[in-house]
Amino acid sequence: MINQQILKQNIGIDISKDAFDAYLVALTKELDIVSIGGRRFKNTDKGIEEFVKWAEKKANPAVELEFTMESTGVYYENLAYTLFEEGYIVHVVLPNLAKKYIESLGLRSKTDKLDAKALGQMGVERKLSVWHPASKNIRILKVLTRERTKRQKEKTVVKNQLHALKHSKDRPASSIQRLTELINFLEQLITDIDKEIKQLITEDEVLNLKVQNIISTPGLGITTAASVIAETNGFAGFNNIKQLQSFAGYDIKIRESGKWKGKSKISKKGNSYIRYALYFPAYTIIRKSPHYKTFYDRLLDKKGESLIAATAVQRKLLGLIYTLWKKDVCFDPDIESKQAA
């Protein structure tokens, strides 16, 4: 351990499906950033147990130990929950925020070890929000909504296969029958999942009230609201709409150099489940809401592409859902006007 007095210490964690790199970083009384050491562990229950023992041995017992990691898919969850249950302070940062911080360090190389070290440094330099696990119902909701999305995509694939088969020269009736039965089977699964989602939300009084506020918006149904809520863990960790839009991959990428200006487009480097959930509702609200129709038409005239204009509506719609959730209010024309402006 270093001789200087430590003010803060944080273990940065870069995690993936099979393993994670951990690196202990400290902030001294002289405001120096000191890198103490790191190690790689398997992302298993045994590996996490070994990591906790290593962390306790490596850290200064006189200073509270904190942990910082990115919210990458579901791979961070087991580790984050374990550390939380052990009583540690855990920070789970959005990938885009972590990326911007790491870029600000001007590192010339990129490795899992360096990313873990940078996250540890971020933890001692910045005042990060403390992570709290999502409620059990929201965790179950995420499983159900993701399952529904997968079944819906499977159904689309099979319907396309059936359409192609019906237009082919040689089309056995038995093949058509099997594909038709498969579509019916998938539709029944989706119906069953929808019932579970509705029941889960209805039985949770607080969650149900918030969902009812959201689905008061024209074009938004319970499955769309459930997907967005589940994927954002009830919007935990989001302080503003821009953070949320970036998390969902709706942040705008601008490419230009000198006099040359490229096309601006969304990054798509974010949660694809949210974008999938908002795709069709965006077109519905365009038809049902005069404000969003005006917004869509204006962008369509400017950009000349329907998909670009509709994506911008999705982006606005996500901001509206966030507003209704945070303010505990129903949809009304005033909010609509502000979001669609």
Summarize the structure.
The chain is of the alpha/beta class and 341 residues long.
Which CATH class of the domain at 6-125? Alpha Beta
> In which order are the strands of the major sheet placed?
3-2-1-4-5
What is the tally of helical segments?
A: 13
Structural class: alpha/beta
CATH fold name of the domain at 6-125: Nucleotidyltransferase, domain 5
| Rg value | 24 Å
Percent of residues in beta strands: 5-15%
Helix-strand topology string: EEEHEHEHHHHHHHEEEEHHHH
**Which blocks of ≥5 consecutive residues have pLDDT under 50?**
none
Largest sheet: 5 strands, mixed
Got a strand count?
A: 9
Global shape:
globular
CATH homology superfamily name of the domain at 6-125: ATPase, nucleotide binding domain
**Kindly state the mean pLDDT as a whole number?**
90
- Assigned CATH architecture of the domain at 6-125: 2-Layer Sandwich
Q: Helical content, roughly? A: 55-70%
Distance between the termini: 56 Å
Domain Transposase IS116/IS110/IS902 C-terminal: 212-296
GO molecular function: DNA binding; transposase activity
Pfam families: DEDD_Tnp_IS110, Transposase_20
Keywords: Coiled coil
Describe what you observe in this structure:
- This protein has 341 residues and is of the alpha/beta class.
- Among the domains are: 6-125, Nucleotidyltransferase, domain 5 (2-Layer Sandwich); 239-341, no CATH class.
- The chain has 13 helices and nine strands.
- The chain has helices at residues 45-58, 77-85, 95-104, 112-125, 136-166, 173-202, 205-214, 222-231, 241-247, 272-288, 290-303, 306-327, 333-340, and strands at residues 6-15, 19-28, 33-42, 65-70, 89-93, 252-253, 256-257, 260-261, 265-266.
- A five-stranded mixed sheet has the order 3-2-1-4-5. It has a two-stranded antiparallel ribbon with strand order 6-9. It has a two-stranded antiparallel sheet with strand order 7-8.
- Strand 1 and strand 2 form a beta hairpin.
- Helix 5 (136-166) crosses helix 8 (222-231) and helix 10 crosses helix 12.
- The chain is globular, with a radius of gyration of 24 Å.
- The termini are far apart.
- The model has no long low-confidence stretch (mean pLDDT 90).
- Pfam families: DEDD_Tnp_IS110, Transposase_20.
- Residues 11-165 form the Transposase IS110-like N-terminal domain.
- Keywords: Coiled coil.
- One of its GO terms (biological process) is DNA transposition.
- This is Transposase.
